[in-house]
């Protein structure tokens, strides 16, 4: 899945996201595990809000996304902030992740892993490049959100020169949300249509994938309040620690 035209609506779609609270929680977890600097990867960095906050905090960030349009937005923001160093942007599919060396940790937010049909492979790839003791911090939409919040809902966004309609359909048999995005530009009359999926993963499946690839799941909390999970939590937030390197595994 790659957001293309929708990249330019993404920040508005995420307008209610509390990036400051997310950043504070991630920074706290990193520091609690002794990671105050070094190389971090943002897996599915989107428009780069969190990536750039971590860059400003002194981390050497690798922002990875499959969408060139998303990465263009990150570049523009980085230039405006004067962040020429400490940031590398890569256009890659997380199922084919290929980094140039090891990383101290990785973050993945706003349900990036829900968009991946093979969660096991995505976690394996993140773990392959991570140092022993490295931390994987990520969130995922819960089954409750897929079934009861996204469900059949439609979201509409209006800009001065364009409109965007986001439609959802939950397919219980396939355990996924079918999503379609339609964008219309008023001045040119152009129309763009994108379709993709969010896959539903329960806690047991996520925990098993982490353990299989050398991670110990330290904690799971509500991904919006960062407090305890409830039956109506819409997002999980995970903290997992790499127990051994690939060389030690072999």
UniProtKB/TrEMBL annotation:
InterPro entries: Methyltransf_25 (IPR041698), SAM-dependent_MTases_sf (IPR029063). One of its GO terms (molecular function) is methyltransferase activity. It is an enzyme of class 2 (transferase). Pfam families: Methyltransf_25. Residues 42-134 form the Methyltransferase domain. Its EC number is 2.1.1.-. GO terms for biological process: methylation. Keywords: Methyltransferase, Transferase. PANTHER family: TRANS-ACONITATE 2-METHYLTRANSFERASE-RELATED. This is Class I SAM-dependent methyltransferase.
């Amino acid at each position: 899945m790659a957001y293309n035209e929708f990249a330019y609506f993404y920040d508005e779609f995420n307008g209610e996201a509390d990036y400051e609270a997310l950043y504070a929680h991630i920074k706290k977890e990193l520091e609690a595990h002794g990671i105050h600097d070094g190389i971090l990867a943002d897996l599915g960095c989107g428009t780069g809000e969190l990536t750039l906050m971590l860059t400003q905090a002194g981390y050497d960030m690798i922002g990875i996304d499959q969408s060139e349009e998303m990465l263009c937005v990150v570049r523009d923001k980085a230039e405006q902030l004067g962040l020429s160093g400490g940031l590398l942007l890569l256009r890659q599919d997380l199922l084919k992740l290929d980094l140039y060396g090891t990383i101290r940790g990785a973050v993945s937010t706003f349900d990036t892993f829900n968009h991946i049909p093979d969660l096991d492979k995505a976690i394996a790839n993140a773990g392959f490049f991570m140092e022993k003791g490295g931390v994987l911090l990520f969130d995922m939409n819960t089954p409750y959100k897929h079934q009861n919040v996204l469900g059949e809902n439609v979201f509409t966004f209006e800009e001065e020169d364009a409109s965007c309609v986001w439609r959802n359909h939950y397919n219980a048999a396939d355990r996924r949300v079918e999503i379609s995005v339609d964008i219309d530009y008023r001045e040119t009359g152009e129309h763009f249509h994108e379709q993709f999926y969010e896959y539903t993963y329960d806690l047991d499946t996520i925990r098993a994938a982490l353990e299989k690839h050398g991670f110990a799941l330290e904690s799971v909390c509500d991904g919006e309040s960062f407090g305890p999970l409830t039956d109506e939590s819409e997002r999980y937030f995970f903290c997992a620690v790499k127990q051994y390197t690939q060389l030690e595994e072999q």
